[in-house]
Amino acid sequence: xxxxxxxxxxxxxxxxxxxxxxxxxxxxxxxxxxxxxxxxxxxxxxxxxxxxxxxxxxxxxxxxxxxxxxxxxxxxxxxxxxxxxxxxxxxxxxxxxxxxxxxxxxxxxxxxxxxxxxxxxxxxxxxxxxxxxxxxxxxxxx
Length: 142
Hints:
The protein has 142 residues and is an all-alpha fold. The chain has helices spanning 3-79, 86-113, 116-121, 123-138.
């Protein structure tokens, strides 16, 4: 081989190696960015889930601790009315029934937002408890 051919082949090999290094660095950088973005997305999703769980817990607590006692107090006040007419007694009984229904629904909503079993015993126990309630109320076997 002549020196010009050797120089040409050497230059081609150097250029190919340099191009290969540049491509490898570029691919490594892209992979590193993808991993970082995936990690950031996971952190963002976890943060959103935690915020939603906190909000659900707050709403469930508000329903249970604030609305329930108010309705119970109203029911007690209604029951202390002195009624002499049978029609008035019927209205009070009707109001008591509705208040009881509202209290039961409030407890149910509060429980559905954040089941105590989920907090205390974990996901598996909460799912098993939910399935047993479905079995009892809807005769649904899962």
